[in-house]
From TrEMBL:
GO BP terms: regulation of heme biosynthetic process
Transmembrane intervals: 6-23, 30-49, 79-98
Record's subcellular location: Membrane
Protein name, entry field: GH20749
Main location: membrane
Family per similarity comment: Belongs to the TMEM14 family.
UniProt xrefs under PANTHER family: TRANSMEMBRANE PROTEIN 14 HOMOLOG, TRANSMEMBRANE PROTEIN 14, 15
Entry keywords, A to Z: Membrane, Transmembrane, Transmembrane helix
GO cellular component labels: mitochondrial membrane
Amino acid sequence: MPIDWFGYAYAATVAAGGIMGYAKAGSIPSLGAGVAFGALLGYGAHLNSGDPPRPLLQLGTSLFLAGLMGARWNRSGKLMPAGIVCMLSVAALVKNLLTYNRYLPMPTKGN
């Protein structure tokens, strides 16, 4: 399986956003959340780069960030940073669903 470059770039962007939030506003929660979610997404990209890929961590984290930041974007109306992270999260979610759909566990009927 090829390396998940998009996943690594997404993780770095989220982590950098948290660091920038701390640098500009002194926001410790922004720093903690950005670095924590960036680390989760980076590990998810690592799992996606394996053979076979395991996309569930990155899918779940992207879904959570899309919802959280989408709600913040809706409340504030500000594109930076909530709108950008929401759009990146939706793009990562769609990309992962399309790319890794054959590796996702499907529910089966139990007898």
